[in-house]
Design goal:
The protein is mostly beta strands and 107 residues long. It contains no helices and 8 strands. It has strands spanning 14-16, 23-25, 33-38, 44-49, 61-66, 72-74, 81-88, 95-101. The strands form 3 sheets. A 4-stranded antiparallel β-sheet has the order 3-4-5-6, with no helix packed on it. Strand 5 (61-66) and strand 6 (72-74) form a beta hairpin.
Length: 107
Amino acid sequence: VNETASEPINSEIFLMDLTTGKSLRVSRNPAFDFEPTLHPSGKLVAYVTDRFQNGIHGDLQIMVKDLAAGKEERLDIGHKMWAHYPKFSNDGKYLYFSLAKALDLPY
């Protein structure tokens, strides 16, 4: 991703085919997106995003994106929560993740 002075620095999610070297951009927004995990079917990607921040130390939410349809859904984990390390179960029926209450830091 090329960044310019007019764009905020952020991170996005990409999926790369190691055989062909072609990549698919999964996320595109001005927030930080990170910790992706691929569903066993290869049809869904879950990842953490800070695009729903409420202040500098806001929410870290989990998004699930349908790669074929291009639709995203935010998991409802509550307000002022930090979610991390999403991982699909081997059978694809569950999505595991860590969850903590966001800290109100003084800066």
